[in-house]
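Entry for the shared binder. Reason: the reviewer on the internal report wants the predicted structure included alongside the sequence.
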Amino acid sequence: MKKILIVDDEPNIVMSLEYTFKKNNFEVFIARDGQEALDILEKQLPDLIILDVMMPMVDGFATLEEIKKDSRLQHCKVIFLSAKNKQKNIDKGLALGADLYVVKPFSIKKLVEQVNELIQ
């Protein structure tokens, strides 16, 4: 079973993504901010991380910088899912090593397709 970590502080997004990915046979882990995500990553090695940019404590950009320092997570794909839709933010996310940058609002169906393409 593929593992996915969803990192977002918006409860409605977390609930809909968690439901959808569980329905698509993923083991789902949830973090509400970057620090919680890093704590989960101490114990779990997901195949993919969906990461919001604007979060309390540690934002998505700083979280990704930490993820990229961890050699255990080199196989892990990262998708930014953010309302920050300016090109400079998208460029920064991709420059930090994200595999994809998806802007909110988004299509859950399309996101599932993109996740499956990245981790097949």
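Summary line for the report: The chain is about 45% helix and 20% strand.
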